[in-house]
Write a structure and sequence with these properties.
Length: 398
């Protein structure tokens, strides 16, 4: 069997129509298949490879740690230098109340842990999430999904989950003294990159304070510089009680993290002891990659270039078929008129060497989330391919 046959025969499939690109290697903003075809990666592994592919400093950090040791003990038992240094580095970038980090395997696990922690801290059971949010696909995280299509096959899910509309101040009265926590993305990802409104976030923070409710910011997709700041919530002048990180934090390696105050986090150590256990959380090789990734970000000027790159995308992507462009920084979504036409455009882009896709709750939108390292010429290349695909699908006028 060749690799394609092995993939289809032995690997679990999540759709009946996988993309089936057979990637041999990757460098910078490009993926290269087994035939040498180069694909400009406009989605960076769904917001993971923010430093591009194959960053040399990240690779060196991984190799250095491999030469020392790999996994030695479950999270939180042995002192290991790289997870400890990573935790110190992360907390130094965050407000004072976010001074304790629990490292995990993924963003979905971080969501699950935050739900447990909020219930433990508040001694309440109700959790509120926003409609059209995505916090992961595990059983607990799926409970925070408002879309019945994705939930109906897996019920019963967790009880006491309620929903508010994102950016709706009128809905905030649903948060009460019975609410343990409110989960919200700072920029809704799978809804098609919808940023929070300033007034909504200010009112949300106040309502949580007034009711003693914990505010959880999910920055699994928006964190690590994609909006021009290390964390997207920095644009709003407020801070969460619990912060979730993942995806790009690992600089290409799998990771999740829950960050909150030490006073809250230490509750996992008592009643019950071992309130959460993660075998591979804080894996030293992954932590080495994550720490190197932050250091690479800090010493380069990519964050300061994000606004200009966003502006270039918005300036170039002008076409009668484009209804709107939502998002912030290098998290942009190009809205078309239908999923059918969007899929045709995405397929035409792939034929011309450009990888993009749609969103779970906004399938009429094209995802633009390239590495922060993307150059002006690469942005121009990407936009030319998208415009050419739009012309093929719609014609030069609509």
């Amino acid at each position: 069997m060749n690799n394609r046959q092995l993939f289809l025969t032995y690997q679990a499939q999540t759709t009946h129509f996988p993309m089936m690109l057979e990637i041999e290697r990757a460098e910078g903003c490009f993926l290269i298949d087994i035939n040498g075809n180069r694909y400009l990666d406009l989605i960076s592994g769904i917001s993971v490879n923010h430093l591009g592919h194959g960053n040399e400093e990240v690779k060196a950090a991984i190799i250095d740690q491999l030469n020392l040791h790999q996994h030695v003990m479950v999270y939180g038992e042995f002192v290991q230098s790289k997870p400890a240094l990573l935790a110190k580095k992360l907390t130094s970038l965050l407000p004072e109340n976010l001074n304790s980090v629990y490292f995990l395997n993924s963003g979905a696990e971080a969501t699950d842990v935050a739900m447990k922690l909020a219930k433990r801290v508040s001694q309440r059971s109700e959790i509120i999430a926003c409609k059209n949010a995505y916090h992961g696909s595990t059983h607990a995280a799926l409970s925070l999904n408002s879309d019945e299509y994705y939930k109906q096959a897996f019920r019963p899910l967790l009880p006491d989950i309620n929903f508010i509309n994102f950016n709706s101040i009128n809905d905030l009265n649903l948060i009460t003294t019975k609410t343990a926590c409110v989960f919200t993305e700072v920029i809704q990802g799978e809804a098609g990159y919808i940023p929070a409104n300033q007034d909504f976030f200010l009112a949300l923070r106040k309502r949580c304070d007034d009711t003693g409710t914990l505010l959880v910011f999910d920055e699994i997709q928006s964190g690590m510089g994609k909006t021009g700041k290390m964390f997207a919530f920095e644009h709003y002048g407020i801070k969460p009680d619990i912060l979730l990180l993942g995806k790009a934090l690992g600089a290409g390696m799998p990771i999740g993290a829950v960050v909150c105050s030490r006073e809250k986090m230490i509750l996992f150590a008592d009643q019950p002891l071992l309130g959460h256990i993660s075998t591979f959380g804080g894996h030293p090789v992954v932590a080495s990659a994550a720490l190197a990734g932050i250091q690479v970000l800090e010493k380069n000027n990519w964050l300061s270039q994000v606004d200009a790159k966003e502006h270039l995308f918005r300036t170039l992507l002008v076409h009668p078929a484009i209804k709107s462009i939502s998002g912030k920084g290098l998290m942009l979504a190009v809205e078309l008129d239908s999923f059918e036409n969007n899929l045709k455009v995405i397929q035409e882009c792939l034929k011309e060497g450009l990888i993009t896709d749609w969103f779970l709750f906004a399938n009429t939108k094209i995802r633009i989330a390239p590495p922060l390292t993307i150059t002006e010429s690469e942005i121009e290349q990407a936009c030319n391919i998208i415009l050419s695909a739009l012309n093929l699908v719609y014609g030069s006028s609509v």
